[in-house]
């Protein structure tokens, strides 16, 4: 899997060399390339923004640098196997199932905008050439697309076959298909007693049936408390 990041702050992606994604890069599972969008400007000030047509506050990212960067990084041929991701406040909420789908992609290009956003013709052009995803991390405001690109990268790469040392652990995580759409149950490890707080006895019983039942009950309880929106979904197992 090749991952490209287009941003006016490419240093955001230096962290990928340190994290688990860096390990995957070393193992050859992923290839990471960060690019400075300003490398595709031609004026002395390396300008990437301009005032919005129709007026309004803030600045909008000009289309020209993006188009030239696309030509060099992706090419000028249409290829639906290339996935181009535009984080955006107006994007579709990014989900675990979207991460799972993207984990089989061979090429993902993250377009990380700033200011008030990117000229929409950039997205329209990308849609005419590749498979485009306009996504949002959630209902809160970030200053640009970089943090979202990092979060999406981690969510996707950890699902790439061969990346996780113990793929079985993926099945028990919150939001994973194996969890019935429920939140993950509380976790404990040694010592059994810590600052007057004990591990629930059932987990020390060695009785696998009771343990499974306790874990399921806890997942249902937590999901009802914290994510009632998940309890109505068909996959939740709670109705
Ligand atoms: N993904 C996601 C996401 C999220 N969950 N919050 N904010 C963003 C996000 C993503 C992309 C951009 C671009 Cl390009 C510019 N900005 C700044 C901005 C802030 C408020 C309104 N307009 C633009 C972005 C914010």
TrEMBL record:
Keyword Chloroplast: no
Top-level class of the enzyme under EC nomenclature: transferase
Protein name, per record: tRNA (guanine-N(1)-)-methyltransferase
Pfam families documented for this protein: tRNA_m1G_MT (PF01746)
Stored HAMAP family: TrmD (MF_00605)
Recorded superkingdom: Bacteria
Amino-acid positions noted as binding S-adenosyl-L-methionine in the UniProt annotation, renumbered to this chain: 113, 137-142
Enzyme Commission number, as recorded: 2.1.1.228
Subcellular location: Cytoplasm
Reported function: Specifically methylates guanosine-37 in various tRNAs.
Entry keyword set: Cytoplasm, Methyltransferase, S-adenosyl-L-methionine, Transferase, tRNA processing
Quaternary structure and interacting proteins, as annotated: Homodimer.
Organism name: Cutibacterium namnetense
Catalytic activity of the protein: guanosine(37) in tRNA + S-adenosyl-L-methionine = N(1)-methylguanosine(37) in tRNA + S-adenosyl-L-homocysteine + H(+)
Protein family according to the UniProt entry: Belongs to the RNA methyltransferase TrmD family.
Family annotation (Gene3D superfamilies): 3.40.1280.10, tRNA(m1g37)methyltransferase, domain 2 (1.10.1270.20)
PANTHER family per UniProt: TRNA (GUANINE-N(1)-)-METHYLTRANSFERASE
NCBIfam families documented for this protein: PRK00026.1, trmD
Location (main, coarse): cytoplasm
Record bears the keyword Transferase: yes
Residues annotated as domain tRNA methyltransferase TRMD/TRM10-type: 1-231
Signal peptide limits: none
């Amino acid at each position: 899997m090749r991952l490209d990041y287009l941003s006016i702050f490419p240093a955001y992606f230096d962290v990928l060399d340190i994290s688990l994604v860096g390990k995957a890069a070393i193992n050859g599972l992923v290839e990471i390339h960060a690019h400075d969008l300003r490398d595709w400007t031609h004026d002395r000030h390396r300008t990437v923004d301009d005032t919005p047509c129709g007026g309004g506050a803030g600045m909008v990212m000009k289309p020209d640098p993006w188009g030239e960067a696309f030509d060099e990084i992706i090419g000028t041929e249409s290829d639906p196997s290339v996935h181009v991701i535009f984080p955006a406040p107006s994007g579709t909420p990014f989900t675990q199932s979207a991460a799972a789908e993207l984990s089989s992609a061979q090429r993902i290009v993250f377009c990380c905008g700033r200011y008030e956003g990117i000229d929409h013709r950039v997205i329209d052009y990308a849609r005419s050439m590749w498979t485009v995803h306009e996504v949002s991390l959630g209902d809160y405001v970030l200053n640009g697309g970089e943090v979202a690109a990092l979060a999406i990268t981690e969510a996707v790469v950890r699902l790439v076959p061969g990346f996780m040392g113990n793929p079985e652990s993926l099945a028990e995580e919150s939001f994973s298909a194996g969890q019935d759409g429920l939140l993950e149950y509380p976790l404990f490890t040694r010592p059994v007693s810590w600052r007057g707080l004990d591990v629930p006895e059932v987990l020390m019983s060695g009785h696998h049936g009771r343990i499974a039942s306790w874990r399921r009950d806890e997942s249902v309880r937590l999901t009802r408390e914290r994510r009632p929106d998940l309890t109505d979904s068909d996959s939740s197992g709670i109705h």
